[in-house]
Every structure is written in structure tokens, then in C-alpha cells.
């Protein structure tokens, strides 16, 4: 039963993730945000299958609760229906594809050459104490880098949404 649930939830995660970006049903960004909620919920189901209940609850509370509400507020503030439609730019698509491919190659090389998961112990599976200890001792630098990246993203959103005074 666990294998069936894993394949079902992973398929749903991939399908909903693709529908966030390439939505054939509607060009409304709110529909894409709802597909993102479904992606997050199916990922939380995968966490439950891994017996990481704390991560599953945090995934739903933080991302599906707070981040999606923030996305919806930004969508409503930008008034996307009033903006003019942009033409497809071939140069931008090619450059973005090359950038995406290079990032994917760097990620694959990094994952294959590193010892990801070497220090994990299976007897601490799903333990909140073990998660906190590992996060603030062994993985403190990536944790701090993620915090700085989120701060930069927040400042960028504030600067982009700021209207000029005339």
C-alpha cells in the first residue's frame, strides 16, 4: 500500500507542478496558485509516507497557509488582468533555457559528488528534536544562507511592488 501511495502522490506532485507553470485550463494566475496549493499538499503526503509528520504539518501550514495567501495578495495588488499581453521573446527563452540547463548540470554534479544523507541515522526518523539539533549544528550555514535569500526576496518584492510618486 505504501508503494501505491508513493507513486500516486509523486505523480500528483509532478502533474500539479507542471500545471502551475503550464496551465491549459485558464490564464488566470489564481488558478496557478491553487495548483501550487495542491502540489504542496501532495508533497506533504510524501513527507507523511517518510514518517516526517512535523515536516508535513509545517509544509502545509507555512507554504499552503502563509505563502499562498501572500501570492494571492500580490496577484490581486498587481491587477494582472489590466496589464498588456507581452509577445514571446525568442532570445529570452533561449537564454532562460541555457541558464536552466546550466543550473541543472551544477545540481546534478553537486549531488553526485557529495555525501548527501551520509550522517543520517534511521532510528531518529521523524524526531523533531533530531531535526532541530541537525539543523542548528550540522546544517547551520545552509540554514543561514536560506534566511538571507528569503530576506533578499522579500526586499525585492517590496521594491518591485512600490509605486512611483508623481
State the gist of this model.
The protein is mostly helical and 166 residues long. It is built from 6 helices and no strands.
- CATH architecture classification of the largest domain: Up-down Bundle
| N-to-C CA distance | 63 Å
Helix percentage: over 70%
Tell me what portion of residues adopts beta-strand conformation: under 5%
* CATH topology assignment of the largest domain: Four Helix Bundle (Hemerythrin (Met), subunit A)
Number of DSSP E strands: 0
Tell me, briefly, the overall form: globular
Q: What's the CATH H-level superfamily name of the largest domain?
A: NADH-ubiquinone/plastoquinone oxidoreductase chain 6, subunit NuoJ
Low-confidence stretches: none
Largest sheet, strands/sense/barrel: none
CATH class of the largest domain: Mainly Alpha
Count of discrete alpha- or pi-helical segments spanning 4 or more residues: 6
Number of domain units: 2
Structural features, described:
With 166 residues, the protein is mainly alpha-helical. The chain folds into two domains: 1-83, Four Helix Bundle (Hemerythrin (Met), subunit A); 124-166. The protein is built from six helices and no strands. It has helices at residues 2-21, 29-49, 53-78, 90-113, 128-137, 140-161. Helix 1 runs antiparallel to helix 2. The longest helix has 26 residues, at 53-78. It is globular and about 50 Å long. The chain starts with a helix and ends in a 5-residue tail after the last helix. The model has no long low-confidence stretch (mean pLDDT 79).
